[in-house]
């Protein structure tokens, strides 16, 4: 969840078996202390229950006591119109225990065909922001996001363009770590699930030009406490030709370093696996002229348990950084991947999210 300083998403994985053994959770909204564990390859086909609910947990949650407690909902899209390809990102998040920069939404659009890119960030007064508990009903100046786990409608208005889309999930929800609950950096618990395959259609207007768009989106819903010890992370979402959905986390905290993936299969089963640390295969660094932060733009990703080796690269242009209220930023960039997955040749499109400093 970018815009909490430079900190958003992180994870030190907890296997579902470990969660059940310690008995620390009483429901999908519980704020719990989770024992850390090392990711190992496994399939979650044993009936282990999910601790998040894609139908119930799209609504706002009651805030925990921490200053960095947050609610976040977000989607990225790969769409086409008039022979051109676009990447779209919409994100809104709240930090109800903070006095400044507490309510925010962003839109970013890149024309992957031409390299044109623009983003917009809106700070909203608490009195002008509504996110209902128990249902997806978000209203703020310039933003409307309503619906449920079956169908959603999103409208965004900025000075340079607008978006009006319908999102319809066409597959099962993905619960990160197979249960939807896992440790953040240095032992802080986090709740997260995705609707990783959403049929997307509507209109996009940029600089006065209207596009009728069609494609797919990946939605992420996340909430909990953000640890101040989290220094950097990379997140990637990859949709494989065989229908598998792969979400990769690579995080650095003060006391923890974790690189792992949740794999959702079309039948609803999971694998949770180690990923080799992404820094080992990162290259082609780019330095933002706006913030001075440095990010890689190429990766060689190895997932030994899945016999997978993927080359990922940022597409369009590398300057897809969204600045944050504290003067830093995070990269929310379109990407493409090629390589081997489960020993077979694959290719596809995805998004890469990075925050923190990548000079070392």
From TrEMBL:
Give yes or no: UniProt keyword Signal: yes
Q: Does the keyword Cytoplasm apply?
A: no
Judging by the UniProt lineage, the source's domain of life is Bacteria
Q: Where is the AttH domain?
A: 82-225
SUPFAM superfamilies attached to this UniProt entry: AttH-like
Q: Which keywords, in A-to-Z order, does the entry hold?
A: Hydrolase, Signal
Give the GO molecular function terms: hydrolase activity
Signal peptide coordinates: 1-32
Entry protein name: Putative secreted hydrolase
Q: Per the UniProt entry, what species is this protein from, by scientific name? A: Thermocatellispora tengchongensis
